[in-house]
Amino acid sequence: MDTDSIKTVLENGAAEAEGLLKNPSKVDELLEKFEQTLKEVPAIGSTLSEVPLMVAMVKGYITGQYKVVSPKVIALIVGAFLYLVRKKDLIADNKPLIGYADDIAVMTLALKLSEPELNAFSAWRKANRGEPEDVELA
């Protein structure tokens, strides 16, 4: 795939996204599908799949739609995002094989520490859309 082909794909996606962004429930559906897709990534998929949920919870907190979360948990998640964005890594990302190990470790720990809050947010989000909650089979 060449740069022009990729650019066309992104432009088409952006055009579709503009309409989608006018409907918050459609954006939530997309985020859930994105979470499911990320779960299929070998080795790190389970961690990456929770990132959209983390983003959605922070957005819900910031917009005032979801306040039943500790501000410390929101700060923890945003701190993890800042670590990823700022590129002041413990291990440089350009190091083959290990370059993203610290990024994955930061996200994994943030996920672990905020897991109860994320589970509560996920249940709240599903309840507010009238969707059935996931049932774990024993």
Helix content: 55-70%
Give the structural class. Answer: mainly alpha
Element-level helix/strand string: HHHHHH
Largest sheet: none
Strand content: under 5%
Notes on the protein architecture:
Helix 2 (24-39) packs antiparallel against helix 4 (51-63). The protein starts with a helix and ends in a 9-residue tail after the last helix. The mean pLDDT is 75. The longest helix is centred in the C-terminal third of the chain and has 29 residues, at 101-129. The chain is mostly helical and 138 residues long. The relative contact order is 0.10. It contains six helices and no strands. Helix content is 70%, strand content 0%. The protein has helices spanning 3-20, 24-39, 45-48, 51-63, 71-86, 101-129. The chain has one domain.
Concise structural overview:
The chain has 138 residues and is mainly alpha-helical. It has helices at 3-20, 24-39, 45-48, 51-63, 71-86, 101-129.
State the main characteristics.
single chain; 138 residues; mainly alpha; 6 helices; 70% helix; 0% strand
How are the SSEs ordered, and which strands pair?
Layout: H1 3-20, H2 24-39, H3 45-48, H4 51-63, H5 71-86, H6 101-129
Helix pairs in contact: 2-4, 4-6, 5-6
